Amino acid sequence: MEALLHQVLAGLANGGIYASLALALVMIYQATHLVNFAQGEMAMCSTYVASAMIQVGCPYWVAFVATVAVSFGIGALIQRFLLRRTERAPVLSVVVIFIGLLVTLNSLAGWIFSYTIRTFPSPFPAEPIFGNPYLGTHELGAIGTTLVVLLLLYVFFRFTSLGLAMRAAAQNPDSSRLVGVRVEVMLALGWGLAAAVGAVAGMMVAPIVFLDPNMMSGTMLYAFAAALVGGIDNPAGAVFGGFAVGVLENVLGTYVVGTELKLTVALVLILGVLIARPSGVFGKTLVTRV
């Protein structure tokens, strides 16, 4: 029983990271109605930026805040100067751009930082809190950091005029323009926020999976599964999906399929959701009259 409890709690810790990335995917999807395949590589590059700052002597939390700010700016610039020109382009063209961005960022990171696997420091102490034998301090810290980020995003989108304008621009850009909302600026801010959330997830997962240009490949697969399970158009559903996928991955990987096949849990979830309920648990089913 204690082993099962440990696996569930460890799954919640991983699920918090999946939830952050899934939330970033949902934010981009709401703005473009497309899945950003480069989200993981953007988070990986942000983590390299944080690592470089720490290596030159910058305190961890200063590097953390600076990396989030830099990632926000880069995300906004990507939308402003790369994707804005393809607003009216066919869906396939935008998907190719996302895949091209993924390959470009991965190659650039390997060229600049090399493909050598590196360690990334955790900001949390190594000793267990209150002698807790089930969860490490980094896992607890990752859950806490994720929940704080999610709470800040909820308050921002729910109670601020800028957040409401961004939601309106994402859900109905034509009507938003009629009431004076600068849709292009709102979409750029949305991309910036998604990149910032992804950066936080990257810095939280890097002490666990280590830092290298391919560090986010497995994590992104779980994040895709989380977004689909919760509903690709529902931020709260993405959070639910992240924690659910984290727990299922750990429990099924330990007691059913083995650690070698843990990644297939995400693939099975993706296929199962697409077949049984394509809109996800909390997603909306859109019906279009033709």
Helix content: over 70%
Structural class: mainly alpha
H-E string: HHHHHHHHHHH
| Unreliable spans | none
Please give the count of helices.
11
Rg on CA atoms, Å: 19 Å
Strand content: under 5%
How does the major sheet shape up? Answer: none
Q: What integer is the average pLDDT? A: 83
Task: Spell out the key features of this protein.
single chain, 290 residues, mainly alpha, 11 helices, 0% strand, amino-acid transport, ABC_transp_permease, Branched-chain amino acid ABC transporter permease
Description of the structure:
InterPro entries: ABC_transp_permease (IPR001851), BCAA_transport_permease (IPR052157). Its main location: membrane. Keywords: Amino-acid transport, Cell membrane, Membrane, Transmembrane, Transmembrane helix, Transport. The chain contains eleven helices and no strands. It is globular, with a radius of gyration of 19 Å. The protein has 290 residues and is mostly helical.
